[in-house]
Amino acid sequence: ERVYRVTASAVGRNTGLYVMVFKDQSEARRIDRMRADFIANASHELRTPLASVSGFIETLRGPARDDVAAREQFLQIMQAQTARMARLIDDLLSLSRLEMKPYFRTGAKVELKDVLDSVIASLAPLAADSEVVIERDFSDTASAVFGDRDELIQVFENLVENACKYGQKGGRVVVSVAGPEADPEGETTVTVRDFGPGIPEEHIPRVTERFYRIDAETSRAQKGTGLGLAIVKHILTRHKAWLSISSKLGEGAAFTVHFPPE
Ligand code: ADP
């Protein structure tokens, strides 16, 4: 079933010329449904830790009132759950901010080396926790691209963080840059590669969807919100850049960001 909504808009003030714009209304309905799904998912994700905190408060006021050991343990869980809600809210705010400014205007020259060094430095504690060694496979004169430094940091933080979380424990994560001279299309690319279990082919097209996880339990255990790659995709679109993902099961995954030539 296809329903069309017809809107007319004037082109030029005095020409009297009108253009009919046909919009597929089933597309509008699909977007409405996606929005409703998104709100339902977000509410569910927030409700779960909230229910847990609320349950522990009740236990602490009742049966566990005088149990000092239990109290400490419950408080720790409650702290972890509130931290989880905070991460989720931060990611939701990031997404909605990005949606309010879909087009990128003020691009400045951003040195990829600076961005990647800063990402690798800020993820050192996570890498140490996962016993992962992050290797820098780029020179000190790696390429520059046009964009927003903070947003690009967010992109590579998400990718390197995922490589540490879902890659091989005790393994390597390699961050490499290839300049435009190396590419027939003149693209500058940054690849984040891990050597973990990889991503089954059928999941690859879907991992950038909001709240899509291959294994929700692992994602939660890894402090994931399911929104990281959706944020990455938004930021890259704003930069007219794009993401490619390749993976061989058991051998790891590679996420490549492609920046087109200026
Ligand atoms: P999360 O917060 O769950 O990490 P993301 O949007 O960052 O959410 O990633 C979505 C899902 O994609 C993850 O839950 C995980 O299942 C999968 N994934 C992401 N990166 C990798 C990787 N390097 N190797 C294997 N799976 C990955």
Plain-language structure description:
It is found in: Cell membrane. One of its GO terms (cellular component) is plasma membrane. Keywords: ATP-binding, Cell membrane, Kinase, Membrane, Nucleotide-binding, Phosphoprotein, Transferase, Transmembrane, Transmembrane helix, Two-component regulatory system. Its EC number is 2.7.13.3. It is an enzyme of class 2 (transferase). With about 260 residues, the protein is of the alpha+beta class. The two termini are about 40 Å apart. A hairpin with a 5-residue loop joins strand 1 and strand 2. It is built from 7 helices and 9 strands; from the N terminus they run E-E-H-H-E-H-H-E-E-H-E-E-H-H-E-E. The protein has a 5-stranded mixed sheet with strand order 4-6-7-9-8. Strands 1-2 form a two-stranded antiparallel sheet. A two-stranded antiparallel ribbon has the order 3-5. Helix content is about 45%, strand content about 20%.
Task: Considering the chains and any ligands shown, give keywords for the structure.
binds adenosine-5'-diphosphate, 262 residues, alpha+beta, two-stranded antiparallel ribbon
Task: Lay out the secondary structure.
Layout: E1 4-11, E2 17-24, H1 25-61, H2 68-100, E3 108-111, H3 112-122, H4 124-129, E4 133-137, E5 144-147, H5 149-166, E6 172-178, E7 188-194, H6 216-221, H7 228-238, E8 242-248, E9 252-259
Parallel strand pairs: 4-6
Antiparallel strand pairs: 1-2, 3-5, 6-7, 7-9, 8-9
Helix pairs in contact: 1-2, 2-7, 3-5, 5-7
The structure holds adenosine-5'-diphosphate.
Adenosine-5'-diphosphate (ADP) is lined by residues 158, 162-163, 166-167, 194, 196, 199, 207, 212-215, 219, 224-230, 253.
EC number: 2.7.13.3
Catalytic activity: ATP + protein L-histidine = ADP + protein N-phospho-L-histidine
Domain Histidine kinase: 41-262
